């Protein structure tokens, strides 16, 4: 039975008032523009949206002009994914009135029209659940999965997306409790960040969501997968594919960080003596067979960086990003690329 129009509008306004959306933008205006447009299409009432800029400050000009309702936060440099989200979360926790829910969303995501309502509806109807994630599909092939919830193998300090690169053929249609949810698209109660804590900035990029999920579950917070909600994700934008040097570097450094932060003394020793040697041997063979010498060196660099005590932004990543080419071209008349 259809709701009367007035009731639908009232319910939509109530959902919007209790929800905020957080995006992190790093010189990615075309993707951010697509994401914001999809959010506008997917909500029955205006949403409170915070965009944290970790790229060049001048890149925000077109975004501010096109989306004046969006709250733009300047991170002051490339502080990393977790730290950037924390800036927005801290603002939301101080705000009055505070939203009940917060949707963390990668800026290269496109939200399908009913996804937000389905996610909010699940949390609103299940007081025992702290966070939910949608079915995440690839933007370039929306019949293929990027994540259908996720899992965590504690002794290996390994979190994974269920169904990644598999066909969306009905095997992933059952909702359920998960041990890991990717922060690519993650709707949580704002109060859960008070109870379980925020993102650990030591990770910079990759692994911060795995550590957060593990910490939240130790605090008794529960995570669920809601497949009826659908989000499309481009994938591997920030650091490239698995052979990209930055991803290889962070994968190793942050895997060690994750193990140290989530395992006890015995588990940490087991990781160092068993899981890590197996991981290094497998990846080194794979990288060298593929002729990816740069990835091999970056992996060893990530291992070394952990033991040297490097945390947060890696030395290979500049603190202050260069201006995008379309800004440099003509400061007075430059136009942002149209998505």
Looking at this protein, list some descriptive labels.
single chain, about 350 residues, alpha/beta, Spore Coat Polysaccharide Biosynthesis Protein SpsA, Chain A, 2 domains, two-stranded antiparallel ribbon, about 40% helix, disordered N terminus, disordered C terminus
Topology:
Layout: H1 5-17, E1 19-25, H2 29-42, E2 48-53, H3 61-66, E3 71-74, H4 81-94, E4 101-106, E5 109-111, H5 115-125, E6 129-138, E7 141-148, E8 150-153, E9 158-161, E10 176-178, E11 185-189, H6 190-196, H7 208-218, E12 222-233, H8 245-262, H9 265-289, H10 293-308, H11 325-329
Parallel strand pairs: 1-2, 1-4, 2-3, 6-12
Antiparallel strand pairs: 4-11, 5-12, 6-7, 6-11, 8-9, 10-12
Shape: globular
- Work out the helicity level: 40-55%
Q: What are the low-pLDDT stretches, counting only 5+ consecutive residues below 50?
A: 1-14, 328-339
CATH topology of the largest domain: Spore Coat Polysaccharide Biosynthesis Protein SpsA, Chain A
Structural class: alpha/beta
Mean pLDDT figure: 88
Which radius of gyration do the C-alpha atoms yield? 20 Å
Largest sheet: 10 strands, mixed
Number of strands: 12
Terminal-residue CA separation: 38 Å
CATH class of the largest domain, named Alpha Beta
Q: Into how many domains do the coordinates divide?
A: 2
State the order of secondary-structure elements, H for helix, E for strand: HEHEHEHEEHEEEEEEHHEHHHH
- Determine the number of helices (DSSP H or I, runs of at least 4 residues): 11
CATH architecture of the largest domain: Alpha-Beta Complex
Assess the beta-strand content as a share of residues.
Answer: 15-25%
């Amino acid at each position: 039975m259809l709701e009367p129009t007035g009731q639908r509008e009232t319910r939509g306004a109530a959902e919007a008032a209790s929800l905020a959306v957080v995006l992190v933008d790093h010189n990615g205006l075309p993707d951010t523009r697509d994401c914001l447009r999809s959010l506008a299409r997917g909500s029955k009432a205006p949403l409170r949206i915070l965009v944290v800029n970790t790229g060049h400050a001048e890149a925000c000009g077109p975004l501010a002009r096109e989306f004046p309702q969006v709250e733009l936060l300047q991170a002051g440099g490339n502080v990393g994914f977790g730290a950037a989200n924390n800036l927005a979360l801290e603002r939301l926790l101080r705000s009055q009135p505070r939203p009940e829910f917060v949707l963390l969303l990668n800026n290269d995501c496109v939200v399908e029209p009913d996804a937000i309502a389905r996610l909010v509806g699940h949390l609103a109807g299940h007081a025992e659940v702290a966070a939910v994630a949608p079915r995440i599909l690839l933007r370039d092939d929306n019949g293929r999965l990027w994540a259908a919830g996720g899992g965590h193998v504690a002794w290996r300090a390994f979190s994974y997306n269920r169904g990644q690169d598999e066909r969306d053929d009905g095997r992933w249609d059952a909702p359920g409790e998960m041990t890991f949810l990717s922060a690519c698209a993650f709707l949580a109660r704002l109060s859960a960040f008070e109870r379980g804590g925020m993102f650990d900035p030591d990770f910079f990029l990759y692994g911060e969501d795995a550590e957060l999920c593990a910490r939240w579950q130790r605090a008794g917070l529960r995570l669920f997968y809601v497949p009826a909600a659908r989000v499309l994700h481009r994938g591997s934008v920030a650091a490239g594919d698995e052979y990209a040097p930055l991803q290889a570097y962070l994968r190793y450094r942050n895997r060690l960080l994750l193990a140290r932060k989530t395992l006890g003394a015995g588990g940490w020793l087991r990781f160092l003596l068993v899981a890590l040697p197996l991981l290094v041997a497998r990846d080194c063979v794979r990288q060298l067979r593929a002729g990816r010498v740069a990835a091999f060196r970056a992996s060893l660099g990530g291992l070394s960086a952990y033991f040297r005590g490097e945390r947060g932004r890696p030395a290979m990543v500049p603190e202050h990003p260069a201006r995008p080419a379309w800004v440099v071209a003509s400061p007075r008349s430059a136009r942002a690329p149209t998505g």
